[in-house]
């Protein structure tokens, strides 16, 4: 178990495509999905995989009792939900906002449903356009490069805790290429 900083985010939210798994669910794979011999496959029987550290990150948050959410703009809503279920991740996700549109709408709904302030959340996404949009809401964000990695995730949770009172927006969007 990882020793947690004294102040943790009250909710960690992840994008799906190229953050938790290495593809766009609406274009690179072919729903519907199913399990065959313990593997998740699409309709063409191609094996569907997630980034190797994704389960470790989700379990770490669960161990720390930090609620987890999803905010995805995919148009393949049913396929995304199928994959979450088939990968066994349904148990982790407290809040899911999966539908096309600007991530601001996703986070407005998350805020309304959870009662949390934006500053109490931490968001991970591969698309810098989403992070730029969310900076206006003062949501601490992490730009994910080449998939979610446990080491970088832990560094950014700690960094988020250290910057909790920082109101400078530019410092609240973290880049994993920068040493933290």
UniProtKB/TrEMBL annotation:
<dbReference type="Pfam" id="PF12689">
    <property type="entry name" value="Acid_PPase"/>
</dbReference>
<dbReference type="InterPro" id="IPR010033">
    <property type="entry name" value="HAD_SF_ppase_IIIC"/>
</dbReference>
<protein>
    <recommendedName>
        <fullName>Magnesium-dependent phosphatase-1</fullName>
    </recommendedName>
</protein>
<dbReference type="InterPro" id="IPR035679">
    <property type="entry name" value="MDP-1_euk"/>
</dbReference>
<dbReference type="InterPro" id="IPR023214">
    <property type="entry name" value="HAD_sf"/>
</dbReference>
<dbReference type="GO" id="GO:0003993">
    <property type="term" value="F:acid phosphatase activity"/>
</dbReference>
<dbReference type="InterPro" id="IPR010036">
    <property type="entry name" value="MDP_1_eu_arc"/>
</dbReference>
<dbReference type="InterPro" id="IPR036412">
    <property type="entry name" value="HAD-like_sf"/>
</dbReference>
């Amino acid at each position: 178990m990882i020793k947690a900083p004294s102040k943790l985010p009250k909710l960690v939210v992840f994008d799906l495509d190229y953050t938790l798994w290495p593809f766009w669910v609406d274009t690179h794979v072919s729903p519907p999905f199913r399990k065959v011999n313990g593997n998740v496959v699409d309709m063409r029987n191609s094996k569907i995989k997630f980034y190797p550290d994704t389960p470790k990150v989700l379990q770490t948050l669960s161990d720390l009792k930090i609620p987890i959410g999803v905010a995805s703009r995919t148009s393949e809503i049913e396929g995304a939900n199928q994959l979450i279920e088939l990968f066994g991740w349904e148990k982790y996700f407290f809040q899911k906002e999966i539908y096309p549109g600007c991530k601001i709408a996703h986070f407005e709904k998350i805020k309304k449903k959870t009662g949390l302030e934006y500053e109490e959340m931490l968001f991970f996404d591969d698309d810098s356009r989403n992070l730029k949009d969310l900076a206006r809401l003062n949501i601490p964000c992490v730009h994910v490069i080449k998939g979610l990695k446990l080491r970088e995730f832990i560094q950014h949770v700690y960094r988020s805790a250290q910057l909790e009172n920082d109101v400078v927006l530019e410092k609240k969007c973290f880049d994993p290429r920068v040493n933290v």
